[in-house]
Design goal:
Layout lengths: L1 E4 L4 H14 L5 E3 L4 E3 L15 E5 L18 E3 L2 E3 L5 E5 L6 H13 L4 E3 L17 H13 L3 E5 L6 H7 L2 E4 L7 H8 L5 E4 L6 H13 L5 E5 L17 H8 L4 E3 L1 H5 L2 H13 L4 E5 L17 H17 L17
Parallel strand pairs: 7-8, 7-14, 8-9, 9-10, 10-11, 11-12, 12-13
Antiparallel strand pairs: 1-3, 1-4, 2-3, 5-6
Helix pairs in contact: 2-3, 5-6, 9-10
This protein binds phosphoenolpyruvate and manganese (II) ion.
Length: 343
């Protein structure tokens, strides 16, 4: 259950409840930013009726609490004036890795001309083999940031390790937690303490409930700005890199208030399947997509098989807009807030 205290009397309301919980050995966490007690295992709401200063008591019987739909109906927030979680379909795109200035500037220019507001790109790359291209690191972050800001776009980039948090946070508007790091609980704790949106990818072997518990780590630290991202799960079948679990989108919508987007690039692993999977993601109710696009896909230094070309991306965006239009929705590329003029 979650006990939310009245904002104005949170400090005075907190102490007697804390005393009661400690005396009765009830497991709890007080989240100062939300002035709320989270009691993950306790179900007896009536016990707390005796206490002053309580705004509401929410019974929740799932292991995740703050990430639950019972706590809140919908999470929404602004990323530099672009709204997330309010019904707009967010389009995030860019190369798997930042490779050089020409590549990232050409991509930013192309995408911003189409109205795309979020430029993705990896500077610190998690690679299966230590011999693969692992990113330009600090130089990559700087180039990505420079290109994004030159075209009034937001930066989405991955944080590989907690020791890099300050550096990545300096350049990122949204910090990506990769699939391999979804279970890195110490990293999630660190991200709970900052005031920056987090794109939380699903671990490739994670159940929906484990994914929501990873989000709970971040939320229980006080950071509620989270976007979930389905990126495919591992299966027995080698015919695709991953199995894109689009069915998880309505499941998450039933269980949680957090926005969820889909990454059809890693989800399918093949450029030819990115457009159909994106359209399917829009149709099934996702809040956006994260797409790998490259000026010359065959030469991409990472994930070249799944990178789509500029032409393919234009096509994908047109079809997505048409589909969403039929559903009474819009992409954020039609919004004029960012990209209105180059800096
Ligand atoms: C990526 O977005 O390039 C990436 C490495 O993603 P994932 O963590 O989903 O594999
Ligand atoms: Mn990639």
């Amino acid at each position: 259950m979650i006990i939310v205290l009245n904002k104005n009397s949170a400090e005075t309301g907190r102490l007697p409840i804390e005393g009661f919980l400690n005396a009765n050995h009830i497991n709890y966490r007080y989240v100062g930013k939300l002035h709320a007690f989270v009691l993950p295992k306790y179900q007896q709401t009536e016990v707390f009726e005796q206490f002053e200063g309580i705004e509401t008591i929410i019974p929740i019987n799932t292991p995740y609490q703050l990430a639950s739909k019972s706590y809140k109906n919908q999470t929404s927030f602004q990323v530099n004036d672009i709204s997330v979680g309010e019904g707009l379909f967010n389009v995030m795109a860019g190369p798997c890795s930042v490779e050089n200035e020409d590549q990232i500037f050409a991509t930013a220019e192309f995408l911003s001309n189409l109205g795309v507001k979020f430029l993705r790109g990896g500077a610190y790359k998690p690679r299966t083999s230590p011999y693969s291209f692992r990113g330009l690191e600090t130089e990559g972050l700087k180039l990505l940031h420079k290109a994004a800001k030159a075209y009034n776009m937001n930066v989405v980039t991955e944080l590989l390790d907690g020791s890099l948090l300050d550096e990545v946070a300096t350049y990122a508007d949204i910090i990506q937690v990769g699939s391999r790091n979804m279970h890195n609980f110490h990293l999630l704790d660190q991200l709970g303490k900052i005031n920056k949106p987090i794109l939380l990818k699903r671990g490739f072997q994670a159940k929906a409930v484990e994914w929501l518990l990873a989000a709970e780590y971040i939320m229980s630290g006080g950071n509620e700005q989270i976007i979930l991202c389905e990126r495919g799960i591992r299966s027995f079948d080698p015919s695709s890199r991953n199995v894109i679990d689009l069915g998880v989108v309505p499941i998450i919508k039933e269980l949680s208030h957090l926005p969820i987007i889909v990454d059809p690039s890693h989800g399918t692993g093949a450029a030819s399947r990115v457009t159909p999977a994106s359209l399917a993601a829009a149709a099934i109710g996702a809040d956006g997509v994260l797409i790998e696009v490259h000026p010359d896909p065959s030469r991409a230094l990472s994930d070249s098989e799944q990178a789509i070309s500029f032409d393919e991306f234009s096509n994908l965006l047109n079809k997505t807009k048409m589909l969403l239009n039929a559903l009474g929705k819009q992409t954020d590329t039609e919004s004029t807030v960012l990209n209105s003029g180059r800096l």
